[in-house]
Amino acid sequence: MGVVFVFLVFLAIFTGLMCLARNYRKIMLNIPAPEALPIIGHAHLMIGLNNEEQLKLITELCFLYPNLVKIWFFHIMGIIVNNPELIQKVFNAEVCMEKPYIAYRLFNLDNGLLSARYSRWKHDRRFFNNSFKLSTLQTFIPIFIETADKLTSEITGYVDGNPFNILDHTIRCTLKMICSTSLGMKISDAENDETFNKVFHAVEYTSESAALLQNKPLIYPDTIYKITPRYFENEKQGQFLADFHQRIIDERRAILRNNNNKTDGVSGDSSDPGYSIFIDHILNNEGMFTDQEIRDHIITVLSAGYETSATATAHCILLLAQHQNVQNKLVEEINEVFGADEEINLESLSKLQYMERVIKETLRIAPVGPVIFRETMADFELEKGLIIPKGTTFILNIYALHRRKDIWGEKAEIFDPDNFLPENVAKRHPCSFIPFSTGRRNCIGHRYAMISMKIILTKLLRNFKFSTDLKYEDMRFKAVLTLKLCTEHLVSISNRY
Ligand code: HEM
After folding, report:
1. Taking the CB of residue 101, how many other CB atoms lie within 10 A of it?
2. Is the distance from the beta carbon of residue 113 to the nearest atom of ligand 1 less than 6 Å?
3. What are the sequence ranges of the domains in the chain?
4. Which alpha helices (DSSP H) does 372-477 contain, by range?
5. pLDDT tens digits, 156-166
6. ipTM beyond 0.85?
7. Is 431 assigned a ligand-binding role in the annotation?
8. Is the shortest distance between the CB of 304 and ligand 1 below 6 Å?
9. How far is 115 from 103, CA to CA, in rounded Å?
């Protein structure tokens, strides 16, 4: 027993020294850090905290160290970059475009844009930028309108009734939007459709597993995770998604072949309104990607797009329910723009300037992608004389950046869409507000998200008045991959007219 104990102690010391030696250059960087313990570094600060407390802690760190702060857990070391100028420098540098494996492996989508290694990402991102250009997004507007209309009729049953969780409904709405625009699944088919429900469950389950892995890295290292029931169920759901997407790929391929590949990005189905769905864009370039790569790309777009937009929309509705003056002003604008039966299109949506400010303020207070990571692919001079070694992880806490008093003023915690009046925006550094990240590896779907959210809000606010018992000052957030509310998004509705 005694020998085993001594052996384990030696092993722990040896491992610790190895880690220290490997990270010596990084740990010795001339960057401030909270007090660290030998071997475990700052792990003791995090252990035992729940998701809400963890977010609070790293936010406090960002306030305490307004430029840079280094933290490390055992052998994993990261630099939190807080200052907008430094953020711009890091996120625009080619050498910092890598994603650290440890932070993104949990998506299990090596070929998808979000988690792909730089060499693959660089090639694929250039290709997919085309799928998200405005002329393509504009063709999705009828789908967004139809889906938002369905959401409106779905929640009509709650009028003058009990409070309900609006997120349960926005989440199905945005997944339907993405299934239609990326896979060509018809919205009417998706309604009450068993397949859609299974896809919904599988996407939710696999995202939940990724969140669990991210938040409990010490409990769930790969070896332990792989013997848990969740791992096996996650594999099953992942396989279901892979089979489902393969079936769609095969079906779309057949349609395109029947049309002699002459689709110019149009879906190829004669009953279809002619929008350029994501999968057709890929299949029109047959040979460029393997089926596995196509599946990874599609699952990535689905997963990265639906929950973020749904959560942001739910946050926005809740904030409007809490701020009746903002809700009324927004409805006035919607009525002004769409009063005389103006069509919903890119031009009319661009007139919704106040709505734009409301959505931005929502994403400031509650950025749904709260913490993101990058890795240096070579030594990188961040500031004069400060060389960041190759393989260092940068951490960006967008949630904290959006709450800095030196940027947003003493009222940084207050919800105020006027923060985005042009004269106020002009006073700030462009990297003070980055809910969609910044630089070339930013969110490819940011315009998709803004257009779809504007349409959902327009439809909902024209029909319903929203209220809630949840007070703004009682809203608490936690980071579980995305930024979630600690409670439900409970709102009540009544007919607006
Ligand atoms: C309010 C809604 C959204 C927010 C706040 C948001 C935020 C973000 C952020 C912060 C990133 C950077 C992640 C990182 O570097 O780790 C990102 C990346 C990404 N987002 Fe979004 N997103 C939203 C909606 C969407 C939508 C609707 C889609 C697709 C239809 C989408 C697809 C993606 C993809 C594919 C990436 C990876 C891009 C790359 O690395 O090249 N997102 N998003």
Report:
1. 12
2. yes
3. 55-495
4. 398-401, 405-408, 422-426, 446-463
5. 999 999 999 99
6. yes
7. no
8. yes
9. 9
